[in-house]
Design brief:
single chain, two-stranded antiparallel sheet, globular, alpha/beta, four-stranded parallel sheet, 8 strands, 13 helices
Length: about 270
């Protein structure tokens, strides 16, 4: 939900990742339905006659490319019932857009629904982390744009689930480290993809059981090392590093980058 530059940009990045994972671009795009406050982006005819056309939204090629012939301004609840998505991504800045009926419907169609209300500040969030957990009986995989406290489930469950704040701070330190230690001269989309994969692969089983979708910030140094090494390897493959000879001579990228990391430990002078 959300057809602005942020929503379309995020969907475009996810689509590119799906293509890199093996889908064709057409197959990947067919797995998205994008809605705004007027309903799903689609054709101008049909029952709902997508109001976005009358408002001139489709004059923007970036928006028009996401229109789907199967939808015509269909309301979000009806799209969810028919499309049966496994992921609900919110970048609409519409508070309470993901209401109880919507989330419970999704939970009835999907064992582990992924719910990501990304709008911020908290007052603009599509739903809270607690609502996403409680309306799915703790089955939802949740990441949010705004920070939320851990949620303790009631009843016989009794688990405490910790939602992750979905933020680029998990990869930015590693990207900077790749530039300084690895001599990366240009950052490509493929490098950002590798950075994202390295970030997720850095998670521990304990963190997953806690309900997190990102590693704990307490381990950001370990995550940054993994991200930097993944980006440097891609830079070496693509020939986008000015330290190729040094990196090849070092052999062990992890050890080399680790030595280059700054540790704010000060030795007493007296």
């Amino acid at each position: 939900a959300g057809a602005g530059s942020a929503g379309l940009g995020v969907c475009g990045a996810i689509k590119d990742g799906m293509v890199r994972a093996g889908l064709s671009e057409k197959e990947a795009q067919a797995r998205f339905v994008i809605c705004n406050n007027n309903g799903a982006l689609g054709r101008s005819g049909g029952v709902f006659g997508d109001p976005n056309h009358a408002q001139g939204l489709f004059a923007d090629p970036a928006v028009a490319g996401w229109a789907c012939e199967h939808w015509d301004g269909t309301p979000l609840q009806q799209v969810l019932e028919a499309f049966r998505p496994t992921v609900l991504l919110g970048l609409s800045a519409q508070p309470n857009l993901f209401n109880e009926e919507l989330i419970r419907t999704m939970a009835s169609q999907c064992e582990r629904p992924i719910i990501m209300p990304m709008s911020n500040p908290t007052s603009r969030c599509e739903c809270s982390a607690e609502q996403a957990y409680r309306w799915t009986e703790g089955r939802a995989i949740v990441a949010t744009g705004s920070p939320f406290q851990p949620v303790r489930l009631g009843g016989t469950d009794g688990r405490t689930l910790t939602p992750s704040q979905c933020n680029n701070m998990y990869v930015f330190p590693g990207l900077g480290l790749a530039a300084s230690a690895g001599g990366i001269t240009t950052f490509t989309d493929q490098m950002l993809y590798e950075a994202a994969v390295a970030c997720v692969n850095s998670m521990t089983e304990e963190e997953r059981l806690e309900g997190r979708t990102f590693p704990s910030v307490k381990r950001i140094r370990q995550v940054s090392l993994a991200v930097a090494c993944a980006v440097i390897r891609e830079g070496m493959r693509a020939g986008l590093t000015d330290k190729m000879k040094i990196l090849k001579a070092e052999g062990n990228i992890e050890q080399y980058v680790s030595r280059k990391m700054y540790f704010p430990d000060y030795v007493p002078l007296l």
